[in-house]
Design the sequence.
């Protein structure tokens, strides 16, 4: 899969973070599932898929030629297992990439940091905006805060359907916004819910 295609999906993941202009109250508030597909693609004639054993991270270093970094374990394995299980439930057969699968699933993770600003004038009311120290009025500086959202992006491509400019056909994709955030004890339940939802809203994959 071309890196440019991954980056266009990463831009969409960034747009999804803008649902929280004042910041999230909890990590699971960042979870949002988006999916899309090629309506002209005949999924019914495809039966096998291949899946890598790692999930690459989209970073600035990757764009400048650095060696790729990957989502750490056991998080990567848990997500890959759930993707595989859902594909099999829908009637697909997992094969090795060397066995000429009908489609390839390419998972990636991207992190976006959102920073927002506020001031105490607006938060506490204008009468709390300053006070009388010995030197006169004190005006509090605007404060800022930020949070990082990590999204899982999974793209399905047909390796046997290649355009004249050597691009594989993208036939399905889903993004789970916020799923990589925190990686606390709630991670397993959030990743399970998100990946299952991506397949629930993609019934065209079912055999």
Sequence:
């Amino acid at each position: 899969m071309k890196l440019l295609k991954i980056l266009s999906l990463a831009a969409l993941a960034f747009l999804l973070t803008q649902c929280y202009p004042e910041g999230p109250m909890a990590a699971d508030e960042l979870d949002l599932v988006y999916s899309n597909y090629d309506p002209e693609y005949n999924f019914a004639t495809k039966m096998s898929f291949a899946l890598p054993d790692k999930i690459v991270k989209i970073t600035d270093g990757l764009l400048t030629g650095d060696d790729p970094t990957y989502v750490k374990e056991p998080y990567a394995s848990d997500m890959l297992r759930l993707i595989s299980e859902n594909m099999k439930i829908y009637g697909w057969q997992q094969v090795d990439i060397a066995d000429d699968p009908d489609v390839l699933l390419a998972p990636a993770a991207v992190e976006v940091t959102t920073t927002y600003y506020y001031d105490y004038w607006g938060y506490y009311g204008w009468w709390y905006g300053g006070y009388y120290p010995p030197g006169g009025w004190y005006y509090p500086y605007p404060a800022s805060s930020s949070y990082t959202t990590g999204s899982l992006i999974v793209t399905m491509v047909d390796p046997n359907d290649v355009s004249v400019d050597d691009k594989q056909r993208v036939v399905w994709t889903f993004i789970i916004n916020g799923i990589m955030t925190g990686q606390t004890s709630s991670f397993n339940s959030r990743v399970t819910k998100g990946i299952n939802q991506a397949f629930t809203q993609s019934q065209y994959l079912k055999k």
Q: What stands out?
A: Residues 1-29, 120-133, 135-141 have pLDDT under 50 and may be disordered. DSSP finds five helices and seven strands in the chain.
